[in-house]
Amino acid sequence: MTRFEVLILGNSSATPMYGRHPTSQVLNFNEQFFLIDCGEGTQMQLFRHGIKGSRISHIFISHLHGDHYLGLVGLLSSQHLVGRKSELHLYGPAALKEILDLQFKHSDTRLRYPLIFHPTNACHQEVLFENTRLSVRSFPLQHRIACTGFRFDEKVQSASLKKEEVERLNIPIPYLRLLKKGIDYVADDGTVHRAKDLTYPLPRPRSYGYCSDTVMNEDYFEAIKDVDLLYHEATFLHDRVERAKETFHTTSLEAAEVAQTVNAKKLLLGHFSARYKDLQPLLEESRTIFAQTELSEEGKWFLV
Amino acid sequence: MTRFEVLILGNSSATPMYGRHPTSQVLNFNEQFFLIDCGEGTQMQLFRHGIKGSRISHIFISHLHGDHYLGLVGLLSSQHLVGRKSELHLYGPAALKEILDLQFKHSDTRLRYPLIFHPTNACHQEVLFENTRLSVRSFPLQHRIACTGFRFDEKVQSASLKKEEVERLNIPIPYLRLLKKGIDYVADDGTVHRAKDLTYPLPRPRSYGYCSDTVMNEDYFEAIKDVDLLYHEATFLHDRVERAKETFHTTSLEAAEVAQTVNAKKLLLGHFSARYKDLQPLLEESRTIFAQTELSEEGKWFLV
C-alpha cells in the first residue's frame, strides 16, 4: 500500500516548554514530502528525526502566528546554503511573501533555487496542489487572524486486472483500460463481463485533515468529513473552555466532538498549552467521547 | 567577587546540525542578564538551560543574518504571552525594527511590555549601555552585511576601607569617600595616610569581547584589546582559509592569532560550520598558537 503518514515535529502552542516545539509536521505520501506549518526550530527537528530538508517539495503554512511559521526563513536559508537546486512550493497567507522578502533583503540572500509562492485564501476552500495520486485543499478556520486548515486526499486509482481471467476470456486490449476504470465489457455475443469480477478490489482512498488553530465551529466540518486521520488542535482541557473561546482555540473535549461529528476514523491532538506539562489528561478527556484519540508525540509517525 | 559569566546557547553557524543551535549567549553580570544574538530556537534553549526569559533585560543583535536573530520574534512574543511587564531593551541594526514591526503587524501582536529599540551603528564604536557597574560598547566587524561586535567592561569600583585602621587614625568622615577613590589623606600635622594602605586592593575590572561574524581584520583589534575572555567565531579550519575569506569568516587558527595579538586572557571558539561534526580539530588548531582556548560548548557557563 502507498505510504501515507505524518511525522510530528512540534506539538506545542506558542510558548514552547518542556522540550516541546512549536507546530510543524512532515507528511510523507508515496515518498513525496510535504511540510505542514514550520514553527521555530523546524530545521533542527528535521535533522533530529532524519529528514533531509531537500526532500521537502511543498510547504503549507496555516497562518501568521509565529509558532506556525518562524522556522521558515531558517529552513529556506539553510536549503540555499546547502546548495538546493530543486523547486520548493510554498503556500500561505499573502503577507508571508512580504515577510520573507524583507528578511532576505536585509540578509542579502538571493536563493539559488526556485521558491514558488502561492498565496492562500482564508475565505473559501480551494485546491492548492494536485497530481495523479493526491490532492491538497485548504479551507477556512476561525482564529484571531486569517487561518486555513489543509486536507490531503489520496485519489482513486485504476484497478489492477486479474490477468489470467482477462486472457482466458480474450477481452480485446482497448477494453482493458475501461475495465480498470470500472466499466463492464459486453462481448459480441451479449455476455456481460463485470469489471468488478475482472479486477482486484481497490483500496479505499485515504485522507488527512489538519486543523490548527481554530475555535470549534461547524463551518469547517464539511471540509474534513470522513477523513481517516484528523489532526485537531486541543490547546486546553475543557475546564478552560471560556479561555479557549476567548483565544480562538479548542479544548480536547471539543476536538473529540469534531472528530465524532465529521466521522473521522482517528484523532490526533496537538498544539498543547504550556500550562500542561503532563498531557495525559488531555488524551483521557478526548477519549471519553472519541476512543480513537492519540496525542501527537514529537518524533512519532502516524499512519493515515 | 561579582558574577560575570557567559552561557552558550548555540555554537553553530547557519545550517545547524548534530543537535547544535545557531548563535546565542546569555551574559550574567551581577545577576543582570544580557542576551547576545538570538538565533532560531533561543527560547527553547533558555528553557532547557533553566534561564527564564523574564530575567533578560537587554538583547544585543550583531547583524541580520538569520542564524543570529531568527529566534527574536518567538522570544519577544512568548514574553508577551507569559505576561511580562518590565522593559526590554533591544540593540541591533535599524532594519531589525522594520522586520519585527512587520511580523507583529501580521500576527496582530501588540506587546504588553515596553520594547525599547536602540539602532546600532556598524561604522564606528559606540557605548550602547552603561550603569554604575558595567558598560557595553559595540564596534564594527567586517562581514558580508553590516555587523558589530560587543564589548562588556566591568567598571572600576570604589575600594573598601580597612575600617579598624581608619577608626584608629580618626580620619574625618568627609575624607573616607576620597580614600575609597584612591586619594590620600593628609592630617593636620602633615602626616600622609596613603589610600592604598587604608583600603583593600581592588579586583581588576574584567571584560568580555564578542566577535561574530567577521573576516579577521586588524581594524577591530583595538576594540577588544586586553579582554579577559574573547569569544571569536571560528567557522572553519585553516585549510579552508580561502573559503573563510570569501564568506567573510575566520578560521580557528586566525581566531587564535587575534586572541594573541589583542592580549586576551582566554579564547572561546564558536560559530562552527556544519562541515565539522567533531569540533576537536578546531580546538587543537587554535591551541597550537593560543593555549588558553576553549570550545563554546552549548549549555556550559564560562567565567569572564
From TrEMBL, chains A, B:
<dbReference type="InterPro" id="IPR013471">
    <property type="entry name" value="RNase_Z/BN"/>
</dbReference>
<feature type="binding site">
    <location>
        <position position="213"/>
    </location>
    <ligand>
        <name>Zn(2+) 2</name>
    </ligand>
</feature>
<feature type="binding site">
    <location>
        <position position="213"/>
    </location>
    <ligand>
        <name>Zn(2+) 1</name>
    </ligand>
</feature>
<keyword id="KW-0378">Hydrolase</keyword>
<keyword id="KW-0540">Nuclease</keyword>
<feature type="binding site">
    <location>
        <position position="271"/>
    </location>
    <ligand>
        <name>Zn(2+) 2</name>
    </ligand>
</feature>
<keyword id="KW-0255">Endonuclease</keyword>
<comment type="similarity">
    <text>Belongs to the RNase Z family.</text>
</comment>
<feature type="binding site">
    <location>
        <position position="143"/>
    </location>
    <ligand>
        <name>Zn(2+) 1</name>
    </ligand>
</feature>
<dbReference type="Pfam" id="PF23023">
    <property type="entry name" value="Anti-Pycsar_Apyc1"/>
</dbReference>
<keyword id="KW-0819">tRNA processing</keyword>
<feature type="active site" description="Proton acceptor">
    <location>
        <position position="67"/>
    </location>
</feature>
<comment type="function">
    <text>Zinc phosphodiesterase, which displays some tRNA 3'-processing endonuclease activity. Probably involved in tRNA maturation, by removing a 3'-trailer from precursor tRNA.</text>
</comment>
<protein>
    <recommendedName>
        <fullName>Ribonuclease Z</fullName>
        <ecNumber>3.1.26.11</ecNumber>
    </recommendedName>
</protein>
<keyword id="KW-0479">Metal-binding</keyword>
<keyword id="KW-0862">Zinc</keyword>
<dbReference type="InterPro" id="IPR036866">
    <property type="entry name" value="RibonucZ/Hydroxyglut_hydro"/>
</dbReference>
<dbReference type="GO" id="GO:0042781">
    <property type="term" value="F:3'-tRNA processing endoribonuclease activity"/>
</dbReference>
<feature type="binding site">
    <location>
        <position position="63"/>
    </location>
    <ligand>
        <name>Zn(2+) 1</name>
    </ligand>
</feature>
<comment type="subunit">
    <text>Homodimer.</text>
</comment>
<feature type="binding site">
    <location>
        <position position="65"/>
    </location>
    <ligand>
        <name>Zn(2+) 1</name>
    </ligand>
</feature>
<feature type="binding site">
    <location>
        <position position="67"/>
    </location>
    <ligand>
        <name>Zn(2+) 2</name>
    </ligand>
</feature>
<feature type="binding site">
    <location>
        <position position="68"/>
    </location>
    <ligand>
        <name>Zn(2+) 2</name>
    </ligand>
</feature>
